[in-house]
Amino acid sequence: MNISEMTALEIGAAIKEGKLTATEAAEQVLDAAEKGNDKVNAYITICREQALKRAAEVQKKIESGELTSPLAGVPFSVKDNICTKGIKTSCASKILGDFAPVYNATVIQKLEDAGAVIIGKLNMDEFAMGSTSETSYYGAVKNPWDLNRVPGGSSGGSAAAVAGNMAAVTLGSDTGGSIRQPASYCGVTGFKPTYGTVSRYGLIAYASSLDQIGPVARDAADCAAVMDIISGKDSMDGTSLEMDYPSYLASLTGDIKGMKIGMPKECYSNSGLNAEVAGKTKAAAKVLEEAGAVVEEISLPFLDYVIPAYYIIAAAEASSNLSRFDGVKYGFRSENYSGLNDLYCASRSEGFGKEVKKRILLGTFVLSSGYYDAYYRKALKVKSVIKKQFDEIFSGYDLILCPVAPTTAPEIGKSLSDPMAMYLSDIFTVSVNIAGLPGISVPCGKDSSGMPVGVQLIGPALGDVNVLNAAFAYQQRTDYHKQFTEVQ
Amino acid sequence: MKWEVVMGLEVHVELATKTKIFCSCTTEFGGEPNTHCCPVCTGMPGTLPVFNRQVLEYAVRAGLALNCDITRYNKFDRKNYFYPDLPKAYQISQLYLPFAQNGHVDLKLKSGKTSQIRIHEIHMEEDAGKLVHSAYDDSTYLDYNRCGIPLIEIVSEPDFREAEEVTAYLSKLKSVFEYLGISDCRMEEGSMRADVNLSVRPEGSTEFGTRTEMKNINSLRAIERAIAYESKRQIELIEDGGKVVQETRRWDDAKGESYAMRSKENAQDYRYFPEPDIPPLSISEEEIQHYIDITPEFADAKAERFMKDFGLSEEDADIIAASKNLAYIFEETVKLCDSPSEVRFWIMSQVLYYANEKNLDLEKLSISPEKFAEFVKFITGGKVTRQAGKQVFEQLMFGGTDFDVAAYIKENELEAVEDTGLIDSTVKAVIDANPKAVEQYKGGGTKIMGFFVGQVMKQLKGKADPAAVNKAVLDALEKL
Question: Which of A102, A204, A209 sits opposite B39 (nearest CB)?
Answer without folding.
Answer: A102
